[in-house]
Automatic annotation (TrEMBL):
Biological processes, Gene Ontology terms: androgen biosynthetic process; cortisol metabolic process
Organismal lineage: Eukaryota, Metazoa, Chordata, Craniata, Vertebrata
Protein name (Swiss-Prot/TrEMBL): 11-beta-hydroxysteroid dehydrogenase type 2
Annotated transmembrane regions: 20-41, 48-71
Homology family: Belongs to the short-chain dehydrogenases/reductases (SDR) family.
Pathway the protein acts in: Steroid metabolism
UniProt xrefs under Gene3D superfamilies: NAD(P)-binding Rossmann-like Domain (3.40.50.720)
Keywords recorded for this protein, A-Z: Lipid metabolism, Membrane, Oxidoreductase, Steroid metabolism, Transmembrane, Transmembrane helix
Length: 397
């Protein structure tokens, strides 16, 4: 009888560990497979001892596990950089600027697009990079500018193809509850993050196919998981993810490899700028309908702003995990489909994949912006009902 139960126990555990392992491997989380593998091996060894399986067998199983593990994690040689050209969007600040510098230093021929050719970022790149770096002024929401960038790039490349496209340019126009986010916010995010990136990608695909090159897109975990207050930004990144993912398998026969990078929170762009947050907040309050502002309360929206500002200030400053990943995706002989780059983002994905929604929602709120103030209309149910009744009364009169 006991034997019977043990077999069931082992079957269930194996199914669980196997399933977890398969899912984790499919999402390309780097640390988790190790943990899951060890958990599985430990459990198996424990069970096998219990059944008094000869020690030789246990040792053999352990050796096999170790071999499999080392085969998987052996560092792959990288491709030569020599003669490879990459095109990076959004290099005024943040990941784009840092990636342009790094890839230039590695010996790539870099085409870096900036919004402002006379801006700080462009000047810094000009000063610190080799003469092989070409700066191009491109607003990716302007198809003529994208087209011009293609012509300029082709003029330099001659008959050569383009090895890499790094889709980095992106915006988060505003933040706030989905209901409080303006339509212009949703459209603004879609315009840059989705339609802009789409147009750039389509424009450069012929050159990328010619070189059997790489497309590396910086997306966001907010495009996979429902982060509070990031509906507009998240939805645009979700649309982008699906487009890129479809392109990935359609590009396989052409030899173009497509990767997406999901970074954790970093200090990039405007996020460290106090004035930026104030202006965002002012324009939100200014543009919200009075009815909504009444129901949510100004203190509620103010708290959201404070939380975001605080969160942005505590974001990571060292961009290197993301920059290393961009370089890896461009040079690895077998780049991954998805990279989680930076502290905590793999764990976040793990929780989202395996835990019930109620728990993963809480986890996201804890990790991100944890609101204390509830919308005004929900504060005192009774008061509120009275107000509504009063209003109805007034209307009747
Ligand atoms: C980019 O967008 C413009 C405007 O919608 C369009 O005319 C152009 O064909 C697009 N580029 C590509 C390669 O599809
Ligand atoms: C919101 O209000 C500001 C004024 O504070 C205005 O300049 C801006 O155009 C408005 N934005 C939208 C999206 O309506």
């Amino acid at each position: 009888m006991e034997d019977y139960l043990d077999w069931i126990y082992m079957g269930v555990m194996s199914a669980f560990v196997g399933g977890a392992m398969k899912k984790v491997l499919a999402s390309h989380v780097s640390a988790a497979p190790t943990v899951v593998a060890w958990l599985g091996v430990t459990l198996l060894v424990e069970r096998l001892w219990f059944f008094c399986v000869p020690a030789v067998l246990v040792l053999a199983a352990l050796c096999l596990a170790c071999c499999l593990y080392s085969v998987r994690t052996a560092p792959a040689p990288t491709l030569p950089v020599q003669g490879k050209a990459v095109f990076i969007t959004g290099c005024d600040t943040g990941f784009g600027k840092a990636a342009a510098r790094r890839l230039d230093a590695q010996g790539f021929e870099v085409f870096a697009t900036v919004l402002d050719l006379c801006g700080e970022g462009a000047k810094e790149l000009q000063k610190t990079c080799s003469p092989h770096l070409t700066l191009l002024q491109v607003d990716i929401t302007q198809p003529q500018q994208v087209q011009q960038a293609l012509l300029d790039t082709k003029a330099k490349l001659g008959l050569r193809g383009l090895w890499g496209l790094v889709n980095n340019a992106g915006v988060c126009v505003n933040f706030g509850d989905a209901e409080l986010s303006l339509m212009s916010n949703y459209r603004g995010c879609m315009e840059v993050n989705f339609f802009g990136t789409l147009n750039v990608t389509k424009t450069f695909l012929p050159l990328l196919r010619q070189a059997k090159g790489r497309i590396v897109t910086i997306s966001s975990p907010a495009g996979e998981q429902p982060f509070p207050c990031l509906a507009a930004y998240g939805a645009s990144k979700a649309a982008l993810n699906l487009f890129i993912n479809t392109l990935r398998h359609e590009m396989e026969p052409w030899g173009v490899k497509v990767s997406t990078i999901l970074p954790s929170s970093y200090k990039t762009g405007q996020s460290g700028n106090q004035e930026y947050w104030e202006n965002q907040y002012k324009s939100l309050i200014h543009n919200l309908s009075t009815g909504l502002l009444e129901e949510y309360g100004e203190d509620y929206t103010h708290e959201t702003k404070e939380l975001f500002q605080h969160f942005a200030q505590s974001a990571n400053e060292d961009l290197s995990p993301v920059i290393n990943t961009i370089s890896e995706a461009l040079l690895s002989p077998r780049p991954l489909v998805r990279y989680y780059a930076g502290p905590g983002v793999g764990l976040m994905n793990f929780v989202y994949s395996y835990f019930p929604l109620s728990l993963s929602d809480k986890f996201l709120q804890r990790l991100f912006v944890q609101k204390k103030i509830i919308p005004r209309a929900l504060r005192k149910e009774n008061n509120n009902n009275n107000n509504i009744n009063n209003n109805v009364e007034k209307i009747k009169k």
